[in-house]
Amino acid sequence: MTVSATARPEHGFRLSQLIYDTRYRSTTIQVVAMFAFMLAVGWVVNNAIQNLEALGKSFSFSFLFSTSGYDVNQRLLEYSSQSTHGRAAILGILNTLVLALVGCITATILGVLAGVARLSKNWIVARLMTVYVEGFRNVPVLLWIIVITAMVNESMPSPRDYRGVETGAFVFTNRGFYFPEALFSHGLGDLDLGLFKVSLDLMAIIAVLAAGIYAAKRIGRAADVKQAETGVRPRVFWYRVAAIFLPTIALLLFLGFHIGYPELAGFNFKGGTFLRDSFIGLWLALSLYTGAFIAENVRAGIQAVSKGQTEAAYALGLRPSRTMKLVILPQAMRVIVPPLISQYLNLTKNTSLAIAVGYMDATGTLGGITLNQTGREMETLLLLMGFYLIISLSISFVMNVYNERMKLRER
Amino acid sequence: MRTTYAIGAITIAGFAAGVASAATLDDVKSAGELKCGVSTGLAGFSSPDADGKWQGFDVEFCRAVAAAVLGDPDKVKFVPTTGKTRFTALASGEVDVLARNTTWTFSRDTDLGFEFVGVNYYDGQGFMVPASLGVTSAKELSGATVCIQTGTTTELNLADYFRANGMEYEPVPIETNAEAQQKYLSEACDAYTTDRSGLAATRATFETPSDHVLLPEIISKEPLGPLVRHGDNEWGDIVRWTLNALISAEELGVTKANAEEMAASSENPEIRRLLGVEGDLGAMIGLDPKWALWAIQANGNYGELFNKNIGPDSPIGLDRGLNALWTDGGILYSPPFR
After folding, report:
1. B187: three-class secondary structure by DSSP
2. Yes or no, beta carbons of A56 and B113 under 8 Å apart
3. Does the beta-carbon distance from B231 to A55 stay under 8 Å?
4. Which of A43, A362, B296, B314 could form a disulfide with A92 if both were Cys (CB 3.0 to 4.6 A apart)?
5. CATH annotation of B23-122+225-323
6. Is the pLDDT of residue B93 over 80?
7. pTM for the complete prediction?
8. Do the first three CATH levels of B23-122+225-323 and B124-220 match, i.e. the same topology?
9. ipTM entry
């Protein structure tokens, strides 16, 4: 019974066992592979250090704390040419994130609409969507970015052309679009957190709105309880509306809310919310481009759902739009979400093309001007790669959590 | 055991890669061509003509260096670089010399690890605006949108100038001169700022140059010159003295046309040393005795290069100004050839 155990050699461990004994072999191979990998990494790092030394360059991140000396046009934080390179990098990172966020949202909306429409029975709609999808998928995104920004630059009037013209609340110029902005005549000011400032007005509005929504939910739940007890559902709709809106409106009145309009002053419009031409070009191009890919994902997802599901839904008397919304899309999501993750990643990484139209994203500030003014290619690019890595992994993580929840539950 | 050999070989290769960058002259000679970094397109300084042949002031300096080193002005490979990529191209050895309207600054000379071999154009930063704007001074530009090439000294000067004068502006960063031109002409920016030579060159390519004015303010010193990597002093000497040879040639009256004849008949000892008929200046920098003669014969002396490409007779129409010889009231001055 224990033949193999007794047949085992009596003497102790020999070195050759590391190679010939199957118990150890796989571990040996992995250890050797690990050492080889570390040596390779070590050589690359050593080579880089030696070459930097040969060029008379040191490796240091201290430049991040020195004065940058340049200006950036889109600022979500306070920044001037006297700020540090590090702050300019953060500024660029925020600009990247804003672009990626709005881009992902619009790309998803566009993609879902186009994907559904491409399967439409309406011949024209379906063909138009084919043209859109194929047109955007098969032309490099950089060209779309440049073309769309150039269209804004070339087709819109310059601010100068508005001199002596009644402009109104919305102004479209070749430097960007101006919209009315929310202003508070006796606002609460800003909370200075050292690195950046937080608008207390915005915080207060969000807090009151959240409290209102919570209250509305409680009223709804109370109604549910009453309905369960008595069978009659009390009419609470208006109470819920009031719970959300009345406190918010009261707060807005208290803060002295009014709308600010853009006005031509000097060379440019002042006031209002400003969407820069480069931002519009990038936003549109990235959304349309990624939207075309998402449309294909959506189409694939819908076609992956068995035809029987549609027929069953029709047999129950559901209209096509409700069938799509309630039966097909929820099932299609399982197929759509995994490739959707990589589309979000693509869009985020493609924001690095922003410098082509002069949008100051992280590649523009840290990997562009800072790199140039300080000459620290190695350090800035390492930082930049780290940044994109972190962003991509975060998006992946969040979307994978979502995917876990959408997955078919097998019992 | 085999692993040890491999690691040894890799280590040696690593060291070799570290020191390989030292002897640029040998690299250029063995490659049989000079790799010269130029701008991606600035009329008069460096831009490809209708036949795709590179033309311009900086381009012809590259040709002069190639002629001095290899004896043939056409043995140049031009590498177009943007304001952003130029230093990386030079540092990594992608180019042997950078002749690209690059301002000689302290940090570039020291911290970036480059060596400026001299100044081939004394410039200053200016502003160009459409004449219809009615602006006559840079001091009136508060609130303006300004197009600016990123990664340049002009970008920093612009920030300093507006801050010092308590004015605001909106920078529109762009990568190349061509993009700046498109943005400026479509009025996406009110003003375009760069070196005045660059502004003049850009304006010369407009359909109606007279619709655009250069504002009188010069807000910075921009000594533009060729540069090489720090640490290879022999190569630096060669490029430096090629530039000096072109300047001295103008001073001594040696031109493309008469260089051969001067070499044969001139009695002036400095001309004789310069053209390699007396002394052994060529050998001192590891080149043929006729190196300077070839460099001058490539496209002419400094004055000829200037007049042909960017001078008053060219479409760019720049005055000699500071760039005149010291004997003519300018500040162009070559150390003596002896």
Report:
1. coil
2. yes
3. yes
4. A362
5. 3.40.190.10
6. yes
7. 0.77
8. yes
9. 0.72
